[in-house]
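To start, one record:
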Amino acid sequence: MKKSLKTLNYAGVVLLATTLLISCDKEESTPFVEQETFEVAELKVSDETEMISEEVMNIAEDVYMADEVLATSKFSYNSDFLPDCVTITTVITSTTKERTIDFGEGCELPNGNVLSGIIYLSYAKDMEMATKTLSLSLENFTFNSVAIEGSASILRMRANEEGNPQSDADASFSATWPNGDTASFTGERTREWIEGYGTGFWGDNVYLISGKGTFTGPLGNVFVKETVTPLRRELACRFIVSGILNISRNDATASLDFGDGSCDAKGLLTYPDGTTEEIFLRRFLN
């Protein structure tokens, strides 16, 4: 059942965007090789790393989109996603707009995530261009106390073949948790904005996300994740509500089915041997 927006506290950006798993008990009857291949602790870190990268890119695109709508539409537009504690400054050169998105020492977004530091965003100042590359980088940036470094290049298309805004991103981010755990994520993702464009209300935005990425966990293990069926992200929910993701390591592949569209923490994990398990998803605020 979908939750009311008034009661939701979702953790919402992206990527490539994708999510992973929580295990109720490492000693459950999962075959040994699969348990080793799909280490639950690493997959939980993987989920948060990928969510952070997607959320960072979502913020950058939200700032750009406000500029685009104001420049190309006849109506006034203000996004309600970034609160007053965020300071945005703009420097215009002969060819570019350089935006500084400053969260100060800590700023809480409407979805409950607390960010600090700076996102730098740069793009061509000609707002009539049908496609445009957004360059993103970070400085002293934290996301829910996780220190983040990295950058992204986002090719934004005002309208794809379906008439929807679309962005194709190449991103590389690394994360350090307060306990010292580190992880990294590199990948490509396509995000189609299918509902809510230009309304000025973040809670009605809906995206379809697809792509492929590589995650390196705290133990040095590498996972490759690839979308099989586009992941549906509704910003009113902190979880992916539908879609299928393949997760591969050491020539073994599991799949994660995010369900039928309900906003809940459940997903169905299918192991390489065909056995299935209902798992619970992690998004910081559980």
Summary: The chain has two helices and 15 strands. Residues 112 and 280 are 20 Å apart (CA to CA). The longest helix spans residues 40-72. The helical segments are 32-37, 40-72.
